[in-house]
Amino acid sequence: MTLLYIIISISIVSLVSLIGIFTLFIKKQTSLDKILFILVSFAIGSLLGAAFLDILPEAFDVAGENIFVSVLFGIMLFFIMEKFLFWYHCHKGDCDIHTFKYMNLIGDGIHNFLDGMIIATAFITSRSLGIITTIAILLHEIPQELGDFGILCYGGFSRMKALFYNFLTALTAFLGAFIVYIFAARIEGLTSHILGFAAGGFIYIACTDLMPELGKEINPKKALKQLIFISLGIALIWGGKLIFHN
Q: Which of 46, 79, 230, 236 has the fewest CB atoms within 10 Å, counting from its CB?
């Protein structure tokens, strides 16, 4: 039954890679910016909420203080991947757009592979943790996949080809999930340390990837809205924990 939950959850998350198709129906850039404004704020709250309110407490119960080593490892690994894969920068004004789009695909594939590992680990630990983790990843994936879609189109892919390759990289999540599912019972302590790694990754993404984007906003009213949506994201995870754990 656990495997079925894992497959269903990853299938839902993978379908988010096709969200770029909705940009065909959004004619005004301002409308898309407003949607992303809400989604990014909500994603920050859900990622931080999942990390601090559910994933870390679950992992700490099993591994104790040792879990924080895994959290640090998660933060450092996501930093390394962001530097070398997720954000491929041009040097000295010399930029190969074709290289850029393929580097983005590689980075996205690795990211989705890790998402699959995290979702599988969460469901193996408990159904409630699996659901909450899936929600947090789902909310983060929506703005990210929209960004990836834009990068691929900018790199020269047609919209249909960009959607296809985006979906293809999303399928690596299944590979990550199956690896964890097969080896979780054979390697002692594997699941708790992957959860620590996941918490570190969630914290890193929320604080260094998403928050700086919101930090550029200087309008007090919009900043207040950001805070409200971040709080709603945290509240969603907290409410989910109370409901599913009971």
A: 79
